Amino acid sequence: MRRLCLILACIAVVLGLGTTLPAFAQSPFSPQSPEAAEEPAGEAPARLPADSVRVLVDTIEDPDSRAALLELLRQVAAGTEETDAAAAASSVEVEEPTQATRVADGLSDYAQAIAETATDLTQRALSSFRGLTGVATGRIAVDWERFGDAALRLAIVAGVTFAAYYLVRLFARRLFDAVARAAGGRTFVGTLVGLVVLAVVDEAAVLFAWAAGYVFALTTGEAGGININQSLFLNAFLVVETIKVVLRMILSPTRGELRIIGMSDKAAGYWYFWTSRLVGLIGYGFLLFVPIVNINVSFFAGRGLRMLIALLATGMAIFVILHSRREVAGAIQRFGHRMGSFGRSAAAVLARLWHAAAILYVLVFFVIWLSRPGEALSYMISATLQSFAAIVLAAIVMALISRMITGGISLPEDVKARLPLLESRLNRLVPTILKVVRFVLLALVVLAILHAWRVIDVLAWADDEAGAAFLGGLTSAAIVALVATAIWLAMSSWIDYRLNPSFGKVPTARERTLLSLFKNAFTIAVILFGSMIALSEIGVDIGPLLAGAGVLGLAIGFGAQKLVQDIITGIFIQFENAMNEGDVVAVGGISGVVEKLTVRSVSLRDIDGIYHLIPFSSVDSVSNFMRGFGYHKAEIGVAYRENIADVKAHMHIAFDRLMETEHGPKILEPLDMHGVTEFADSAVMVRARIKTRPGDQWAVGRAYNEILKEVFDEASIEIPFPHMTLWWGEDKKGDAPPLRVRRARDTEAAALPAEPTEPEGEARQSTPDVGTEHSADVTGREG
Q: Where in this protein does the record put region Disordered (predicted)?
């Protein structure tokens, strides 16, 4: 019994059933033969197959294989000893490792397992070709006569089967054409029905040819039986040609009117040509030629042939991917243009990277097949379908969410009337919500793909204490973020409602200012506290952050004295209610309307529309023109000859007319007459004052000036303009001294150039005689 177990262990090692690292045992890349996958664990074999004995004999006869077998046995023995030592050492109490140590150890074990697996796979690939080289060099004996007889019988059955298949398809061509004409160019359902009918007829031809080959093999075989080689061919023919039927149904390479996918005839023919060749190579290679070589030549030769076919199929797939890279990228981009912005972005990324992903997929398939031939196909199909389902489900969820909020969020009219800014505020949050949802879906898709390909066991990690804590922290942080956003929206909406003059009490300028400042401070507080709580929920120690913030604030306090001065001055200005939003003030030598107030600065808009931002550190005083009431100071200049009492009376007349206009309700008191205030160079200044509501003094003053000009014009009261009077004085009798004007002598006039001749018809100006005296009052006006 011990000898039997030793023989079975040797066979298991040769066929790749040796154990690997426990941490990597469940990985799809860990080496395992199909026989080990199919044999139930814990069952002892009842008998030893003859094929296994032949394999063991071939292994022992081959020097290289015998040396490799001995080396593997030594490794297994060493691994057993190491396992026992590790079990003994585990009984000793050790200090529990930290999280960083566990992560480092896990990464180290994983890297070591990958390196050992890569080495083992390389050895397997090299040893697979030794069988072919053994047959070529004659080290492995082959019964070529028996092999030739089996190949001849197989060729006859294959010829009969293919001949029957092509004859049936030739006779069914008219039926194919009729169905294509009836269903082509119709509705989608009609085209689909036509494709199903053609596929059924095509599959019937495959079944008929398979049955014909089977009947021929039975009737020509010995004792009415069928040869194993012929049975392998017929099974391979049925599988391969059925897959080709499905490919013809999808691509329709010769019947473009029945093609349901957007593809040209050239592209459809190209893809069918290469995919059918690839299916034929893999199907007939693995299902026919490899088993025949295993039975009639050698197991090692069959394994080498299997490796050669896999390499050829991998190279052919990579060639097709690279050759059609641009065409497929263009098709992906055209498909993405019909989708939204997210679809276009995803299509652009996929168009650039699809060939790399496809090549990686082919290489992964090859490596998994090399390590576990029996499980490779089922594993790849399962992982691919799960990955595809995760991607499609995420795309559907994202499309539904995008469609639900496309065009923004619309609120009822009564809500918009009470909270006019809530809808726009919610719509500003929509892009952020979409980004968060896309990130979460992307993370879930990545985790689902990693779980499907058995890179990470997400479910086991989620059940683990560390994984559960991490997921719980993320969920708590997300809830904190949602609650903080809801609190901010509620507070901002309440402030908007309080500032809405259409509902409730009309807010004063002071209330508007304080509520705006409170809104800014509350937003900063919500962001800070929400961020701190969210970080603490995901496991971040916020104690050092708070300490660092205190140190940073102290450093800023010492280094940014102007900023501190701005804030302190701004706090006192707000505390003393020096100005509010909407007030007209003079600050820092600039006058304008207060548009915005913060703790650090004030923003003014002057009469020219210029926007001024003034920090409070540069403010020495604040002049507010809108506190309580306002005055228009009417200081009017009249000529010296006018009667002052008459001027005052007409100023009252102008004020009475002003009271009858739309500006009357703005005036709080009767005209306050001050009288003569100054004797100016050209006018006597008479001043009056009008008391108005705050902010109305400028409009009232402009209207009063217009009316006063009309009243003065009606009364012929002169409003002087700048002029100059030249006066030579007078004596007590009232006589003015003479104004003497002299004319140059004739001799002096003769020395001067002759005057030009005056045109005929013009009068010559007369000149007084020399010595004549004149007395005149010369007055000149300027302007």
A: 28-47, 737-783
